[in-house]
Automatic annotation (TrEMBL):
Disulfide bonds join C39-C49, C57-C66, C103-C113, C124-C133, C170-C180, C188-C197. Keywords: Disulfide bond, EGF-like domain, Signal. The lineage of its organism: Eukaryota, Metazoa, Chordata, Craniata, Vertebrata. It comes from the Eukaryota. This is Schwann cell-specific EGF-like repeat autocrine factor. Pfam families: EGF_2. InterPro entries: Dev_Signal_Modulators, EGF, EGF_extracell. Residues 1-19 form the signal peptide. GO terms for cellular component: cell surface; extracellular region.
Amino acid sequence: MGSVVPLLLLAVLVGFCSGGSDAPRGVAVGFVFDLRATCEPPCEHAGVCIRNNSCFCSRGYEGDTCQYANCYPKCKNGGECLRPGKCRCPPGFGGRFCHKVTCDGGCWNGGECTAVNGVAKCICPSSWTGSRCQHAICPQGCRNGGVCVAPGICSCPDGWLGGACHTAVCSQPCLNGGKCISPNKCRCRPSFSGPRCEERKKSH
């Protein structure tokens, strides 16, 4: 009689019950295991070659040679399963299964990170703007080189005051009805002149 390949009938339990996940339930699967089987390329990640070029994968892996990890629940938002239960998340997403929206650098000043058309973005309160809600809004604007540092509040350069940095400051007051129009510069009434409008013009 010709040689007979020894065969061994096994019952294998695939997976096990894990509460709270959507992993497959454990079921008994019968298959024929060939002790002389060879798999080329070889089975990866502790997979077992059960028949020629046929691998039986250990829990957490799949594919012809058990080359792919699988994650349960699946990686969300385009995440890649690196190893069983471990996802690599694309920019803008985080958490174990890439299910949380994350904004790079976070959202400041009460901004909320959310997905807008699949892209993580900070939604800012009405008084803030910028990619991280880092810029305050001054509805009145900040003139003369002023910078908006908090909602409605300008930081003014030397020589300017007021909510919008619109009021010039003269270190010495303008006289005779003159008006301070820029730092230390007076605009005088027609009958006066001088740096502080202190000189009366002579009539001819």
